[in-house]
């Protein structure tokens, strides 16, 4: 009789613990969804119509329009009360002109972060490039609304969602760095400077880089199936990262993940062409989020009125949920490939 009672109690305890864990996971998911909903297409649109306006002159690296862009980003973080990891009020990681080629002037990465509550030394990076290609020889301004205004404003909204969560007592366990890099269009200079010259946080402590480069449009292949996104690199270094990404999508979005450009034999070689690659070179797991190219790529016609803001909202929420999971899981993801 005692043996039966002990076994019964043990089974009851196991079931109860499992139920508690399921309830905790369910509550965490509910909270994540609640904060993700603060990412809205209206706010994305408002920010992008400024960031990709003629006033910013195509945001060419080192030029006056790019300086206006970094001030816009800084002011946004200041207004949200999100601090800089460099020093109080200093959001600019300065890159000297000598680091660039072809007479490029001094430029800046823009950085902001939310400190982790339990594992502050472990860092999840969300990145996008802040620059574009500037003004054409005939005087046309290349606004770069999709490339990469869409990724830039997505980070601003994701950062706001994390800040709202933190203010309500749900700060991320790990620190999150919001990294806007310069010089991508001329050779991934900003991300290379961060990883090779002056990483603000040790690369060994960097859990993953979620890189957003063009997520506001639809390419020709997906004109009849808008709810998609190309993912590149998710399984290159960590199968666990890939599995988490898939699970997040299945739980919240059910969009089509297209891995065409993740193929090692892809002739476009997009895996090597955006800022995540400088992290991947250093054995840091990455995901590159991308909508594919379109007729307005690197043309003056890449304007904010052509962005599909409902898609931009959904895709930004996807990145938020993925970052939330990476920042709050008990163990950091494992690197199991080179």
UniProtKB/TrEMBL annotation:
Q: Cross-referenced SUPFAM superfamilies, in alphabetical order? A: Zn-dependent exopeptidases
Q: Which residues form the Peptidase M28 domain?
A: 109-321
Entry's Pfam families?
Peptidase_M28 (PF04389)
Query: Which CDD domains does the entry link to?
Result: M28_like_PA
Q: Which InterPro entries match?
A: EF_Hand_1_Ca_BS, M28_fam, Peptidase_M28
Signal peptide limits: none
State the source organism's domain of life: Bacteria
Q: What is this protein called?
A: M28 family metallopeptidase
Question: Which source organism?
Answer: Mariniflexile jejuense
